[in-house]
């Protein structure tokens, strides 16, 4: 029996979950440059089947970690974006009310026939109860992200994005899902995952999360990266960029983060800036070019106004 080249390559590829080092390599292969701290937390989350709460400022790679993990493990990604007012019906399930109404209209005559020979009101009500249960069964159930994740028999990556934007009541609702990987539906009963999903919760620290939620999760804080790590990220995300330009733009961004700005540039903004510079055929940082593209990395006019007079100095500033 012959083995195809792709199958042989797949068989030779190391399992990314055998060690932290293998996980770092695996994530790099799908474009995510992880520090050892990030890879260690992820390694524990996968092997201990624990949700992982990833905190940090916007743009440091929290959501991207979940996306890259799903790509690496070959698992479907189910994403739930949190917001104020998010409730059970949007996160777990809701009933298909339109379908229920349509079926009620279609079966109206049949229901009349079934009740025609009922000798008492109690008997008629008993028959109605039996019919009503049909309309609150699986065919009329509309699964939302949490239920979809629990029903993935082969497992999945469940991303609960920006949990800090949801209400405390919704946070409390999540506790059963995060601890037992199951949910309770009054009309149907409990639904438990055959294969627990790998759960990522991300937070930008808009509000403090409850102790009960944190107890159920491994905690990972992703800070803004050191220069060496940021250079690797840029090189990975922007293929073909010259090493000299990478060093210069990373040094410039690192210098910006030492200033008193309303919003310091994140990793994602560094990558966007690198792509913009490549688009403009830059091979080094020049004051005019930096001035023209400063809006890519600084999102507030007051920050741009504060930095513009210092551009030449910041370009020449050596990386600490």
Going by CATH, the architecture of the largest domain would be 3-Layer(aba) Sandwich
Mean pLDDT: 84
**Number of DSSP-assigned strands:** 9
Structural category is alpha/beta
CATH hierarchy, class of the largest domain: Alpha Beta
Spatial gap, N to C terminus = 58 Å
Note the overall shape: elongated
Along the chain, the helix and strand elements come as HHHEHEHEHHHEHEHEEEHEHHHHHH
Largest sheet: 5 strands, parallel
Strand order of the largest sheet: 2-5-8-1-9
Predict the CATH topology of the largest domain: Rossmann fold
Q: Mind telling me the CATH superfamily name of the largest domain?
A: P-loop containing nucleotide triphosphate hydrolases
The whole-angstrom Rg is 27 Å
Reconstruct the topology from this structure.
Layout: H1 5-12, H2 20-29, H3 36-48, E1 52-55, H4 62-73, E2 77-81, H5 88-91, E3 93-95, H6 97-106, H7 108-116, H8 121-134, E4 141-143, H9 145-150, E5 157-161, H10 168-180, E6 182-185, E7 189-192, E8 198-203, H11 211-215, E9 218-221, H12 227-237, H13 243-256, H14 267-279, H15 287-297, H16 301-307, H17 311-316
Parallel strand pairs: 1-8, 1-9, 2-5, 5-8
Antiparallel strand pairs: 3-4, 6-7
Helix pairs in contact: 2-3, 12-13, 12-14, 14-15
């Amino acid at each position: 029996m012959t083995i195809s080249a792709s199958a042989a390559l797949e068989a030779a590829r190391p399992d990314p979950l055998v060690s932290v080092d293998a996980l770092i390599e695996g994530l790099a292969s799908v474009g995510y440059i992880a520090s050892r701290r990030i890879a260690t937390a992820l390694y524990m989350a996968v092997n201990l089947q624990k949700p992982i709460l990833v905190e940090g400022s916007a743009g440091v790679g929290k959501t991207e970690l979940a996306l890259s993990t799903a790509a690496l493990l070959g698992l479907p990604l189910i994403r739930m974006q949190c917001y104020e007012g998010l409730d059970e019906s949007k996160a777990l399930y809701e009933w298909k009310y339109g379908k229920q109404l349509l079926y009620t209209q279609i079966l109206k005559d049949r229901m009349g026939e079934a009740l025609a020979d009922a000798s008492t009101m109690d008997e008629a009500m008993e028959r109605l109860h039996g019919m009503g249960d049909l309309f609150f069964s699986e065919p009329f159930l509309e699964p939302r992200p949490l239920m979809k994740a629990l029903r993935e028999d082969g497992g999945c990556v469940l991303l609960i994005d920006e949990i800090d934007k949801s209400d405390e009541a919704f946070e409390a609702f999540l506790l059963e899902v995060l601890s037992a990987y199951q949910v309770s539906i009054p009309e149907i009963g409990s639904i438990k995952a055959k294969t627990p999903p790998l759960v990522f919760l991300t937070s930008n620290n808009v509000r403090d999360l409850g102790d009960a939620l944190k107890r159920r999760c491994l905690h990972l804080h992703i800070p803004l990266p050191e220069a060496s790590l940021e250079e690797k990220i840029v090189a990975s995300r922007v293929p073909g960029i010259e090493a000299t330009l990478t060093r210069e733009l990373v040094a410039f961004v690192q210098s910006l983060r030492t200033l008193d700005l309303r919003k310091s540039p994140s990793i994602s903004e560094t990558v966007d800036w690198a792509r913009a510079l490549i688009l403009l055929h830059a091979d080094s940082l020049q004051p005019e070019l930096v001035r023209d593209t400063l809006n890519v990395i600084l999102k507030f006019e007051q920050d741009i106004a504060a930095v513009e007079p210092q551009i030449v100095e910041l370009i020449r500033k050596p990386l600490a």
